[in-house]
Amino acid sequence: MMIPREVLTKIDAGRQRAVDELAELLRIPSVSTDPHHTADVRRAAEWTVERLKRLGFQTTLHETSRHPVIYGELLRDPDLPTLLIYGHYDVQPPDPLDEWVSPPFSPTMRDGFIYARGATDNKGQFFTYLKALEALLLVEGRLPLNVKALIEGEEEIGSPSLRSFSESHGDDLRADAVAISDGSQFASGIPAITYGLRGLSYFQVDIQGPRFDLHSGSFGGVVANPVQVLADMLARLKRPDGTVAIPGFYDDVLELERWERKEMAALPFDEAQLKNYLGVEVLVGEAGYTPIERKCARPTLDVNGIWGGFSGEGAKTVIPAKAGAKVSMRLVPRQRAATIDRLFEEFIRAQAPPGVKVRVTSIHGNDPALIARDEPGVQAAARAIEIGFGRRPVFIREGGSIPIVTLFKDLLGYRNILLLGWGSPDDGAHSPNERFSLEDFYRGIRSAAALLYELPEALGR
Known about the structure:
Blueprint: H1 5-13, H2 15-26, H3 38-54, E1 58-62, E2 69-74, E3 82-88, E4 108-110, E5 113-115, H4 123-140, E6 146-152, H5 162-168, E7 177-180, E8 192-197, E9 199-208, E10 214-215, H6 216-219, H7 226-236, H8 258-266, H9 271-278, H10 291-296, E11 300-308, E12 318-319, E13 322-331, H11 337-351, E14 357-366, E15 369-370, H12 376-389, E16 394-398, H13 403-411, E17 417-421, E18 435-437, H14 438-458
Parallel strand pairs: 3-6, 3-7, 7-17, 8-16
Antiparallel strand pairs: 1-2, 2-6, 4-5, 5-18, 8-15, 8-17, 9-13, 9-14, 10-12, 11-13
């Protein structure tokens, strides 16, 4: 079923209003990991609920131990297929603030982009579906299929409440396909459908030495220095060639298929352009794999933060009492977060020397996912993207994690999981000066609208 020209015309006519409404949502500092922003997170949830209700959704704000889950439904006919739209209204912390050209929660237009925290991850992307639904309803008066919405406020902290919510609301979440736009195109102007996601294991490691900080002149050479102990531990996590040294880490890794490597090699990847964007002279990583393979389809381990001792201006000769670090591991298909969690903790504890106490805390994690590319809903999405972006999408694997995907796949049995990123890899998600191309925002709305027309025939039952 082709999208009516009138719907696309309606979308084009409402461009500026769509941007203005998105800016309203972006002004809300809904940082889910920061308790100081709890009220702001709720405000973003309430804003989203109001927008869904305006479209005619029966909508409920479900409380959790942290931030609310939004569920809404606009059901036309039980004999029609059902699409579930997923998104999240929470955002990453904006730090470091001094690197933002404009304030992170004061949306600013520059050079065809809207700059703000959450612009592309994920407020701007999930909002495209609401604008697509609005245009379709204004023109047609009804939808060609049933639509449900699941919008959460904890994605950036690992979606800790979503499993229990899904288990208790499984019947509500039943659908023939789920659309998730929480990623990106392969490159600007090259739309993509993601068929693979890496998983995640994320830890905090704390080292406790003496009861309090000590004078290094009086106690140096007598006690274990927690910062030095931590540095030694972290250094042992990887071999000189960059591979992870944890025993058993690679045991379950699913190797790339020959056809996948061939397709990845055919993608228009510009290594020099990437190095220039990153500001580095060389790309590093696991030998035997290309940069594309390493960044999206091979497991990794990274130290995300480290602290301890004196780091202020000048000198303070101190042996710190404690030190800590954050460590993340990206996982690939067949690896399991629970297994990697166990292996990591065992390895860290085995490295601890006498004289210190070690605490290893799992922050959050999720398993990787692979999605069959020949599912009818996936092919319908490819046709919709071609309408919205003017070119056929490429199929890619993504290096990041979306916890809800494995939940949809394993718990609810979804097969048509549509990972459709409207943003660009250089949008700066999780970084200062996050942005979203206004043209990509408009193309996303058009693609989402086209999807609503393509799915009924593809999923007809």
